[in-house]
User: Which sequence fits this backbone?
């Protein structure tokens, strides 16, 4: 979306005064060559851009220049304002909605009408139904560590097992919908792993830096990791169950069974949804569903429902027949 990027480039220069091509390329996630092409296009359009060589040099706008959107085409305006919903960009501090609204006031009346027409007909909400707004209290520290190639000591709570503490080399952050993952490896290690940010119970930014592998490609890593996950899920022995889940208990599934469930139907008039959940084995399914207790209703299979009933009866009998413990 070049129009979006050109406006973002001008907003960055307007906010920071002057920036290097490397800084602009980093913030806009493009190459320096692309930045220079964009600068050439803006200069050709009459935008007063200047460059100053030297240690304290950089690229800057004429301080008397006022950013305007009047030169954008209809398609440019639609692209720019349709993409202004922040989603994970808000976590990165890159939300541009307020800046766009200020510029919107300077548009000619016919262009304001076009933007209004788009915004009244399309709205992008990046979150899924019932998706948790995950607390990311350590996100600023992780973001700083990624930018500065700093080591971090973390305490991480996996889905299963006890929490552990180790030093990581943080390579990048990836947003899957509105869920953030840290991509990194153990200090001095070889294999990259994905860590869900919400599961960090502690993060300490260390003064030491690490040497980043220049061959590492974050986007390629994520594509490969996602493909491996799909292949593993497809090749694993499956035990599928169907559950009716009230709205009040839905938090459990994105929190602890991410990627293992799909919604079949709902929400109904009470807010409940019907989910198909896939476990690695029948034993795991029995254990996990039994632990959910009365928070869910088993729709299928009948054998799982019978197992839970028998287990509940056995538990009641055990407590009824056993003597009360006395200190």
Assistant:
């Amino acid at each position: 979306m070049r129009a979006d990027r050109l406006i973002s480039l001008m907003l960055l220069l307007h906010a920071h005064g002057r920036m290097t091509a490397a800084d602009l390329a980093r913030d806009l996630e493009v190459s320096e060559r692309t930045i220079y092409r964009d600068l050439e296009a803006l200069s050709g359009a009459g935008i007063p851009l200047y460059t100053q060589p030297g240690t304290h040099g950089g690229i800057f706008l004429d301080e008397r220049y006022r950013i305007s959107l009047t030169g954008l085409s209809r398609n440019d305006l639609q692209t720019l304002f349709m993409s202004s919903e922040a989603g994970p960009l808000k976590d990165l501090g890159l939300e541009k909605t307020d800046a766009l609204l200020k510029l919107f006031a300077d548009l000619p009346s016919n262009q304001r009408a076009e933007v209004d027409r788009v915004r009244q007909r399309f709205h992008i909400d990046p979150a899924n139904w019932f998706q948790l707004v995950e607390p990311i209290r350590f996100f600023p520290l992780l973001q700083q560590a990624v930018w500065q190639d700093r080591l971090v000591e973390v305490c991480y709570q996996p889905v299963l097992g006890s929490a552990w503490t180790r030093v990581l080399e943080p390579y990048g952050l990836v947003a899957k919908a509105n869920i953030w993952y840290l991509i990194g490896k153990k200090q001095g290690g070889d294999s990259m792993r994905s860590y869900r940010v919400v599961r960090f119970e502690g993060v300490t930014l260390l003064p030491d830096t690490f040497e980043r592998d220049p061959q590492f490609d974050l986007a390629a890593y994520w594509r490969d990791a996602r493909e491996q996950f799909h292949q593993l899920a497809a090749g694993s022995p499956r035990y599928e169950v169907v559950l009716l889940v009230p709205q009040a208990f839905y938090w459990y599934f994105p929190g602890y069974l991410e990627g293992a469930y799909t919604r079949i139907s709902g929400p109904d008039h009470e807010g409940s949804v019907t989910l198909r959940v896939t476990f690695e084995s029948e034993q795991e399914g029995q254990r996990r569903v039994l632990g959910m207790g009365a928070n869910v209703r088993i729709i299928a299979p009948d054998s799982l429902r019978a197992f839970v009933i028998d287990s509940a009866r056995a538990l009641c009998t055990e407590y009824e027949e056993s003597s009360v413990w006395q200190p």
In short: The CA atoms of residues 124 and 316 lie 50 Å apart. DSSP finds eleven helices and twelve strands in the chain. The chain has three domains: 2-119, 139-232, 236-321.
